[in-house]
Structures are given as structure tokens and as C-alpha cells.
Design goal:
heterodimer; A: 425 residues; alpha+beta; nine-stranded antiparallel sheet; B: 377 residues; Immunoglobulin-like; A middle domain of Talin 1; 2 domains; five-stranded mixed sheet; 11 helices; 47% helix; globular; Iron_uptake_EfeM/EfeO (chain B); Cupredoxin (chain B)
Amino acid sequence: MSAKLSRRRAITLAGAGVAGVAGVAAGAGALVRGGAEHASADQGAAAGAVPFHGEHQAGITTPAQDRLHFVAFDVVTKDRARLVELLGEWTAAAARMTAGKDAGVIGAVGGVPEAPPDDTGEALGLPPSQLTLTVGFGPTLFRDARGRDRFGLADRRPAALVDLPHFAGDALRPEISGGDLCVQACANDPQVAVHAIRNLARIGMGVVSVRWSQLGFGRTSSTSTGQATPRNLFGFKDGTANLKAEDGGLLREHLWVQPGDGPDWMTGGSYLVTRKIRMLVETWDRSSLVEQEQIVGRAKGSGAPLGRGDEFDEPDFAAKGDDGQPVIAETSHVRLAHPDANDGARLLRRGYNFVDGSDGLGRLDAGLFFIAYQRDPRKQFVPIQTRLARNDAMNEYLRHVSSGIFACPPGVRDGGDHWGRALFG
Amino acid sequence: MRTTRFLVLAAAGALATTGLAACGGQEKDAGTADGGPIAVKASDTACEVGRTELAAGQTVFEVTNSGAKVTEFYVYAAGDRVMGEVENIAPGLKRELRVELPAGTYETACKPGMSGKGIRGALKVSGTAATVAPDAALAEATASYQRYVTSQTAALLTKTEEFVAAVKAGDVAKAKALYPVARTYWERIEPVAESFGDLDPKIDGREEVVEEGMEFTGFHRIEKDLWTTGDISSDGPIADRLLADVKEIVARANAEKLTPLQLANGAKALLDEVASGKITGEEERYSHTDLWDFNANLEGSKAAIAALRPALEQRAPDLVAQLDTEFANVETALGKHRDGDGWKLHTALSKAELKELSDSINALAEPISKVAAVVAR
């Protein structure tokens, strides 16, 4: 009985979390797993602040928050100094907002009545909600589509910041792809994340212009071993084998740019790939459970690799069934995405579910906003996605509609530092 | 696209005209239980069947097309279950259909222009009718569907040959006219093949499936040239390759045997095709002939369900009734967009009209998704 009730109850609780007290959703995850030990203990931490300054930018290995507002900007100024000045202003605003303060020093209601406030005000009274803001630089910042060196940065473009190739099946829409700059805002309260992006866009008027943005909910992977594995919109646990904050040596090997990898300004940074993946959920929902599980390569309930019992058991790719066929199909997602199939390459994923309403044909405009960080996309995302695009049985239910790649510099060290200082310095 | 899931079966071109005769080619040359073939006079407006009351057993129909349009002749059991059919009867041609008919009530149909419900007539067969055991009903389902696929692949080959010939002759108008017709036979049986994963993208891959180092070939490559620049002068090799690939898929399909479960999943997969790619206009982005494909997918799905019908009636009669209703609803919704013997272009439909089609497909696909579990039990 309790097993039957728990899911609905968990959803109700998660819904309550939307109102602003985050961490309830994390508690809901615990309920789904049948243990209530995390149900209330996380609430304080989930509302708290994540340190802004540090060796690496926050928002990468930070335990994945529940909400996302991601934005990509075009730089519209030709004036390098204005751009650098903006990055400084953004950094100051980001440091304030991630601490739970207003975007500007005056604030939403503290200024003169005749002037617009320097904060938009919708986050007044809300806690920091573990807001993180993470910035990245796109290939077009270094050279535009016509090959022009826009800001004298062309020779500073890292070789690893590649133009992604066309992958089989890509149906990309240019107007929601690419960008000169990006900012990833993650928080446990969507209003806090939206507030942050809205204020950065406002501060940037005339220097940058919003190219596209994406809201996300329901983190689709865990970036910390303390987190339960969430489910994507196909109903499957996602991110079981993800790189996690606790992985120490693996993070150096797979996540952080090391000295000598490329230009010094990227040392301690990471490369970000975003992919908006529409899921054809209606047709997925009428495929049989066995087909779904064969496509994913995991059991829907437990998340265990097919043929194994526990979610975190290693998949046995050599196992054959009674029919002589592999228990985990050759075209299954888990096999093709696994490090074993990719020369050991791994990613740190922190994607989000999205639902952009419906598409006018009665279909949910929904899917996964995939986000992955890595040390070198040429060795990680590109070969992995090439393999998936060719062979993944799941492709029948997916459409890749947006794509982006960005170089995320290392962390802002202190109050005298700012985003892009080493790049432009 | 790589959307196909079960197998096109069977059928070398040589087996073209007949269903049962293909397996029993050594039987007596002609004749029926009452002796002598039944003449069918097919024109663009009439379908005269020589006799409409027969004794159970093997029957031969001799169909003569005196009309100006290419036609088809079908014998349907309840729910439009195909008992036998001849595809692609060109004007002036005479083709034979051999079919084994147990006692019961049937319909004959000529389809001038190969579209619509056709010109229907009643056919009564009397004699001893054995009751079919449940498992035998499933076995008969695959045999029945296999006959359908045999005729479709034969017509696919013929129509692809005609299309390829038009392309190579540089006849843009003729190639454009033949394009959606040839594809009709492909789309009816499209649940062709994950097992033909290498051939499907070559024949039916859309431009975006092409990755670096791969060539864009097949129907959609020629579609693009026909409808964007109209320059097909360099498409000869592409056309030859298309025909070779179609021949290969037909031959390879010949070696495959379907299971009832694959029939059920295939019927669903065809509707998913519509819901994913046709309703959005993705599939035929240059020619906008998506509604031809839509109709062909629907017909193919219906044929698979019809083959399973006797088994389903024994196991889940309510589901059969629901499917009949929903198939009729989709046909009505789609029927509004007929244009002569063909279909309006996708671009001619409003968003509201597309939504109505999408809703009707979903209403049908949901119950169809339950068929596999009924078959499996």
C-alpha cells in the first residue's frame, strides 16, 4: 500500500516545493526510494548560499539544483572596453545575487522614487536558494561567422573549443543555438534563477542581446553522491553513472582543464556543451515497457542495468540471454554512452527536463535540456555523441533542436577578480 | 528515416500478382470451386464482378482494367481484412487474383487511382466453415499479412522502376507525379526494418540523417532536386542506386518471417510515424506530399490489424470495436483533404486541421498500443 501511495505523495510534495521551499523535491526523491531520512534535513541547505568565489566556477560540481534558467547572448557592441566593463558589472551583480542580495547596491526599493530600481524585485524576501551563475564564452566571440577577429581574441581561442560537427539526425534551429556568451543560472527556486538572468540581461542592454534562453526543471542527473538519481521525462533514472563532485582524480582527468591543455586563461575551467533534445513523449508513452527498457538498457523501476539487480551495479555488456542475444542491446543508450564504448571518456552532466507548453498539435513541447561539462569536447562529447547519433535506438523518440558549446573559465578568485579577466587581460 | 520497426516481408518481383498462388504455384492452372475464373471488369467508375455468390474454396478472379487510371482489386473480409489483392493494374492490362475463401461474407473492391475505399460490392461464400482455434488464428494472421506485404513490395518495385526511369529520362513532371505513388507502397509496409538499418537511411533517409563522410541518397535526395531546383540532370546514378537498394531490401525481406507480435507493433509503429514525422511536414519537406504518406501509413496499419482481426475478436472484442471506430474517425478526418486521386499538400492545411488529424491519430494509436499485449497473452 505504502509503495503505491508514495509516488503520488512524492509528486504532491514536489509540487509544494515549487512555492519556494526547495529541498522538498530532494526529499521527495528519498521518499520514492522508500527512505525518508533526507526528507526535511536538506531544507536549510537548499535555501542557503553557494560560495561564489573559488578555484572553479560554482554551478558545475555544485550538487545539481532543481531549477535552471539558461541564457545565450550575442555581443552587440564592437567596443571591447565596454564588453570587459560589462563582465565586471555582471561579476559584481552575480556575487551579490548568489549571496541572496539585490543585483545592485541600491536595491529594488532603496533608491530615489524618480529612478528605476537597480534590482527588479521579484526575488525580494526569497532566500539565496543555492543560486549559482556560471559563465561561458562561445566560439563566435573569438571569430564571427565571417571569420573576423572581433575583439582581438582570435589567437586565444582554445583548440578544444571546436565548432561541433553535424551529427546524424541533427535538426538544429539556428535561432536557438550557439551564442557569444552564456550564463547558466541554477537554483532551487525558479523565481530566483529567472530573477538572476533577468537582471544580467537588463544590465547588459546595449552591450549584449539575448539570443535564446531555456527554462528547466527537475534536474536529470546527480552531480553528488548525496543525491538520489532523478528521472527524465521518459520516466527513467538518468545520470546514474555520472561524474560526481566527490570523484577527485576523475574530475582532474575528465572535467577540469589542466595546465598545458591549452591557453592558460582556461586552466581550471571546463568546456560546456548544451543540447536541447525534444522528446516525442506521446509515441514513447505507447511503446511497451520491454521496448523502453531495451532502448535505455536499464530497468525502469530500479534503474539497474538489464540483467543486474541494483541501480549502481556495473552493466554486464558481455551477458547473453537465452536467445543468444546481448541482455543489454547493442543499440541501447546505456551501452553506447558508457565509458567502455568510448575509450573511457566521461562527462559531468547536469541537464534539466523542460516543457515549453505544447506545440499547437496537441503534443507536449518537452524533453531534455542536456548540459555537460568536460575537459576536452574533442575527446569526450564529440565521439560519444557521434556514436549515439548513429546507433542509439532512442533516436527514434528524440529530436536534437539546439546546440551550443562554450568555454567556461576558472572561478572568480576574489572581489578584485571578474569573469573573463584572464581572457581579456 | 530510421523509424521503421518490423519487417517488410517477402516478395520478389516474380511473385507479383498473386498471394496464395505464390505458395501453391503447382496447383491447377485456373478455376474455382465452381470452375472457371470470375471476370472482373474494372473501369474508372465501375467494378463489375462476374459472380457474387460462390462456394468455399479457391477462387480465381480475372481483373481487366478498361479505365484510364491504374487500379487495384481487393477481396476484403470484415474490418477490411485483406483476403487477397492485386496491385498496380495498368490501363488495358489483365491480372489474376487467386484467393482461398472460407464461407462468409466479403466485399470486393476496385480502386481506380489506387485511392479511397474503392468501388465496393458484396460477395457471399457458402459451404463448410471450420472454426479456427486461437493459435491458428494468429498463425493465419501472419500468413495473411504476408500476402499483403508480398503484393506491396511487388508494386513498390514496379513503381520505383517507373520513377527511376522518369528521373533518368529527365522528365521532371512525370517524376513528380510518380514520387508520392511509389512511396505509397513503401509507406504502407514501412515497419520494415531495424534489421535493415543500413538500407533504410539510404532509401528513405532525410537530409539531416547524413553525417560527415556519408552521401545523401534515396527518395528524399531526388525529392529535394525535383522540388527545389528542378534540376535532376545529375541524379541518374542516385536513381540507379535507389532502385538497387529497393531491390535489395525486397530480396532481403524475402528471407524474413514475421511474428504476430511484430504485426501488432508494426501497426502501432506506422501510426507513430504519422504522429512524429508526417503531421509536422518533416518527412516530405520539399514536395509536401506528407498526406500521401499519412494515408499509406494508415492503410498499412489497418492491414496489419485486419490480419490480426480473427484472433483479436476471440480475445478482445471490445478492443476490435474501438479500433473500428477510431480507424473510421481518422479516415473521415483525413478524407476531408482528398484532392482528386491524391491528397492536398501539407502546406495547404491549417494548424487547426493538422491538430484535428493529430488528435484522431492519437485516439487510434492509444488503443492500438494495447494490441501487442492482447496478442502476447
